[in-house]
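User: Show me a protein chain along with its predicted structure.
Assistant: Here is one chain, sequence first, then structure tokens.
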Amino acid sequence: MPRLLLLLPAVAVIVVTITALSVWSNEREVSNRSFVATKQEEIIHHHHSEKRNNHNHDDSTHRRDTPPIPRKLSAIQDDPKTLNIHIVPHTHDDVGWLKTVEQCFYGENMTIQHACVIDILDSVVTSLLENPSRTFTYVEQKFFSMWWNLQSDDVKANVHYLVKNQQLNFVNGGWCMHDEAATHYMGMIDQTTLGHRFLKKELGVIPKVGWQLDPFGHSASQASYLTSLVGFDALYFGRIDYQDLSKRYYEQECEGLWNSSENFDSTVFWGLTGSYSGNYGAPRGYCFDILCHDPLLVELDEHDLQLSMHEFLMEMRIQSDRTKGNHIMLTMGEDFNYQRAHINFPNIDLLISTVEDLQHSKRIDIPSLFGPRFDTLNIFYSSPNYYTECKYEESRQRDNNTAPAVGGASVNYSIKSDDFMPYSDCEHCFWTGYFTSRAGLKRLERESSSFLMSSRQIETIVVEDTEANTTSYQCRHGMEELEDASGVAQHHDAVSGTSKQHVAYDYAKRLQNGIDLVSTCTTNKLRRLLLGNNVTTDLADLTYCQLLNETKCSVSEVRTGQIDDMVAYICHWCRAFSRLFIM
């Protein structure tokens, strides 16, 4: 008992020590967990403390109480010595490539590719609503329409608000981002029309900018027909031949004008994305997505953050030296980025506010970094539409002599008249094999597109009279399915033949399913067109024979003699009839 009494004080000391250590450990864990979330508040307190300590200094040496709040769409047009840096968050969502359309949309088979479009659109909408200064650009309407049809009225109302507030922007607006070499211009027009029709109906949006980031080369038809005649004011893309790109670096020709038609004036503004790197991602070292491995700015202390911003500004100096004018665009996004947008946007917020704060506090000497062309930076959230407007305004000021030339040089862009084909990204690395790869899929795409066109023509000629509503619905549904399948097939990893095999099978299945749904209705309408109302007995076996190239037709295989000859003649006539409409 005496020994026990002697041990009690020591035990109490141990218990108190353990308790104190436990409390300290818990506090430290909480502190570590909140470090990222409070990075901006930490900088604010640091600035506030330093201002108190230096309250007797000249006002020009004071730090701001808080970092500047990021702004959007706020270019400075009347000062040619100000470099406007347009931050454009975006994602490029392939409508099939390594995974099928549904796998990419729902996030299935993540072992193949970490891609989930639902997560992208859900998290982006949430992040945009949190901060009215943030912007985002989206392209592929196949995916957006799938997501839209799953949303509640409240979410749709929020999307309408974001569009009206110029936070959510749509460019290109097609069902996919079509290829420019293996496609036919009718297929390109159809898929663009399908996407634009959806945007106009659901959101009242008419895209004004072309956005062909990933196709493997760019055609003159894209510039004239699918940009100028569509009504686009500009066309932006990422991939360009490495030798052409290198030459443009030294001549400040990474942006310019493109007039590829000999028959009419199709001049549009064009520019490279991806900080002119030959791609479409963020500047090197500043991808804040979960799919990237660059350091997050919110995890850096103030010293490292300032060093990172200095490196960032050096990247901006390099990019600004490769084009003309005082506007540059940073495309902050790559394939299936922003699946966790709540990580991307706080880092972009911090990047913008830190650059502004360092400039205001003169802790970074902008003239020494960007002189003699620029002595001030203006960095903000933007969109391809707004960037294009600024480029045109810059040209108007030059033409009207309302502003002096930047750095003593006029903003005169050269005019390109040919195409950007073929594309190679290194020596002996020409991307031309896809011109002929998967010939069977290419043929099926062409036949589907031709059949779709013929069916539309027949539908406009034949006036429905007593046809049942159910049949009419089935016909409309079949046409929509074929339009959808044909639109998806124009994707630059579909008709090009560059997808994985199981994805190519999925493209083919979609096309054939669309043809099967439409063929019966089209055949009935054609019979009515040929024979009027006497359709009960004559040409009862009229059938669309898709495999005539193999001399296969289900009707001719079971008929002989005169009927066989008649069906063969009718099938041949139908094919000629279809060609007539296409020509």
